[in-house]
Amino acid sequence: MKNLNKYRKSALITGASEGIGKDFAFELAKQGFSLYLVARNQGKLEEVRNELREKFDVSVSIHSKDLSDSKSVSSLIEETKEFSFGIVVLAAGFGSGGEFASLPVDTELNIVDLNCRSIVQLSHHFIKRSEGKESLGLILFGSLVGFQGVPWTATYAASKAFVQSFAEGLYGENRGKGIDVLSVAPGPVNSGFGGRAGMKMGMSQSPNGIAKISLSELGKSATVRPGFLSKFLGYSLSTLPRNLRSLILKKIMASMVFGKT
Ligand SMILES: NC(=O)c1ccc[n+]([C@@H]2O[C@H](COP(=O)([O-])OP(=O)(O)OC[C@H]3O[C@@H](n4cnc5c(N)ncnc54)[C@H](OP(=O)(O)O)[C@@H]3O)[C@@H](O)[C@H]2O)c1
User: Fold this and answer.
1) Residue 31's closest CA among 51, 2, 53?
2) In degrees rounded to 5, what are phi and psi of residue 110?
3) Which domain holds residue 60?
4) Where is the signal peptide (predicted)?
5) Can you tell me which atom of ligand 1 is nearest the CA of 196?
6) Ligand 1 residue neighbourhood (C-beta within 6 Å)
7) Is there a catalytic annotation at residue 156?
8) Which one of 7, 36, 160, 171 is the catalytic residue?
9) Domain containing 84 — which CATH number?
10) pLDDT of 187-227, one tens digit each?
């Protein structure tokens, strides 16, 4: 991928132990990047590192951290001071499904801490560090649900609206300054996400291949809808008024969360 040549061949990936983050690890290793991988589950990270080492001749280091805890985010920042990353992929994130008031408030706050707070803290650090010095590709994760409010996953959808808006703002601020910000906004993806969120992923795409499509858009656009399903659902919804989109997604989410519309 020629557009990746301008970035130092070293990448930080959060949420790299499975799903989309893991796909980024494999694609970036294929492109010759050394990897600094973060997630909570040490065992899963070790498996990913072993798989990567079997296939690619790149250095892979793994780090177990709970990024919903801002102290852990600060320690990640501290521990990576000696590293210089060309690409930073902030894929760690999770959601919840159900009636807002019936979900534990700690889970909802944890979504905000991980999906929003840690993203602001890490983006701020890595942009400030690269400014005027080196090219940086910063990849954040929006979602199809982030373009309107979505009943039965209200907090998660709002967190992704935050990331989408944040990424668009940063993209505009940093254009032409060697710092490329991209929001990856998939539709439903068949990863570990559904299990943790309590959502049944019916029609969904594989996480495999999302990284390749997304990386090819880095430095070219603010948002990528990776793959046919993301594009088909995203663009067909985008022609409708916001309240109608919410209504349609309410029905879809009800079937994913409660098994009925
Ligand atoms: N799947 C979808 O349908 C979908 C659609 C649109 C957008 N997205 C977004 O895409 C991103 C990746 O999702 P995915 O589908 O790949 O989900 P996934 O398969 O569940 O992977 C999530 C990753 O984040 C890590 N993680 C979760 N909580 C963490 C924490 N507190 N601290 C550090 N790492 C944590 C997980 O590892 P550990 O459990 O080991 O920590 C895992 O590596 C997320 O931001 C998600 O919101 C997903």
Assistant:
1) 2
2) -65, -35
3) 2-257
4) none
5) 20
6) 14-21, 39-41, 44, 65-68, 91-94, 114, 141, 143, 186, 188-189, 191-193, 196, 207
7) yes
8) 160
9) 3.40.50.720
10) 999 999 999 999 999 899 999 999 999 999 999 999 999 99
Catalytic: which of 7, 36, 156, 171? 156
Distance CA 184, CA 109 (A): 23
182 Cβ neighbours under 8 A, 6+ residues apart = 137, 138, 139, 140, 167, 171, 214, 217, 218, 219, 221, 222, 223, 224
For 80, the token pair is 């990576």
Is the CA virtual torsion 173, 238, 146, 230 positive or negative?
negative
Give residue 260's pLDDT: 72
Q: How many residues belong to the chain? A: 261
- Give the count of domains, the chain: 1
176 CA distance to ligand 1 centroid (A)?
30
Measure the CA–CA gap between 67 and 70, rounded to whole angstroms. Answer: 7
Do the beta carbons of residue 156 and residue 108 sit within 8 Å?
no
- How far does residue 1's CA lie from ligand 1's centre (Å)? 25
Kindly state the average pLDDT of the residues 15-34. 98
Cα 39 to middle of ligand 1, angstroms: 9
Residue 135 amino acid letter: S
